[in-house]
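Hello, quick one for you while I still have it in my head. A protein chain has come my way and I'm curious about its shape. I'm sending you its amino acid sequence along with the backbone structure tokens. I'd be grateful if you could look everything over and explain what you see. Here's the protein in full, and shout if anything looks odd to you:
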Amino acid sequence: MSKILGYLGPRGTFTEEVSIKYAKDKDLLLKPFPALDKVFNAVARKEIEYGIVPVENSLEGSVNFTHDLLSNSDVKIQGELLLRVRQLLLARPGQKPSQIKEIYSHPQALAQCRLFLDKNYPGRPRINIASTAEAAALVAQNYGKAAIASIRAAELYGLEILQDSIQNEPSNITRFLLIGLDDVPPTGNDKTSLLVGLHDKPGTLYSILGVFARYSLNLTKIESRPIRGELGKYIFFLDFEGHREEKIVAQAMQEAEKQVLFLKVLGSYPRAESDL
């Protein structure tokens, strides 16, 4: 029986695009979900074997909801994938730019295209919606509206391209995570993601970073997220090169764990091979 790979839907999202690429030749069935937490919950409940979720974008930074879900879930990061994102302005066939009164898209997509919208559609309302594909589906039923979405969304919903590649910068890359319930073995080219809580006293962040420096482990990301309901208190997400089963990584994490309130391994997984 084929295993199921869930993703943030509906059909036509960038998450579907990267999911199709990942699933190729893997005998996986694709299943869309209406929200990120639905993907996490389906994996946690073993309704599906894997999920793919966006975690950060090169223009707009992290997807905070994904970080929040990782911190409160037992799912493991099993891999990462990169996708070059090309944003398009779409509308029903025959629509002229001057007829566009409102623009719909996911908040990240709207932010990625802010400069284009400021220049070409100043003062037009920008409406946040759950996904770029959902925006495309809505616009397909309405005149006077435009969506920021993908070429696949244009094809699926019969929309016309008003403008191609409208993102703020030409290099617009989104990083996605493959999530599941099991740890994956080392490949020799891996990355580990941690969640740590620090003591509320001077020097704690400096101290934990020093552990990784002493073990010559290359930190590729560090990001803080506020602890809900506790102003001024934070947890930290760390990514570094290496796999938790490697001796030097295990030693570093053991030392680090002695200096923090808690340490949670979100996953050790193969690094994305980028040819973007």
The chain has three domains: 3-85+172-180, 88-163, 190-270. The longest strand covers residues 76-84.
